[in-house]
Design brief:
alpha+beta, 2 domains, two-stranded antiparallel ribbon, two-stranded antiparallel sheet, 8 strands, about 35% helix
Length: about 130
């Protein structure tokens, strides 16, 4: 039981803390929709120039990013759009841990149930004197 608590305390910070990923490019509109500029949207925002439709990167405007888990990392596509990449090995590790916890709990249940039978708490045996 103490092992389960220690394992939970080790894994808890990794399950709680998250960080944001932000898009990295601004795109034009209308006839300039294929024109892009580099722009980290963590502290900037995009806007199209109303005169020529070119993209603008304006500073000092905090935008909302994408929430990724602590074990995940940001990846960007060719458009500069942010996305989370979570390696499958963590899902496998979590599954293995859950199976281990279930097996451990089952083992303790069987152990205590058998221990009780040995101590006479659940005496289901029929003796010849009872017949």
């Amino acid at each position: 039981m103490a092992g389960h608590l220690i394992l939970l305390l080790i894994l808890l910070p990794h399950l709680v803390y998250n960080y944001h990923c932000y898009n990295q490019k601004c795109w034009g509109v209308a006839d300039k929709e294929n024109v892009s500029i580099k722009c980290d949207l963590e502290y900037n925002h995009c806007k199209a120039d109303p005169q020529n439709n070119n993209p603008l990167c304006l500073q000092h405007f905090d935008t909302e990013g994408i929430v990724c888990g602590d074990q995940c990392k940001c990846e960007y596509d060719y458009k500069g759009e942010a996305g989370c990449h979570c390696p499958s090995k963590y899902i496998i590790l979590l599954a293995v841990l859950l199976v281990g916890i279930l097996l451990s709990g089952t083992s303790w249940f069987i152990y205590y149930r058998c221990r009780g039978r040995r101590n006479g708490e659940h005496n289901d045996e029929v003796y010849s004197s009872d017949i």
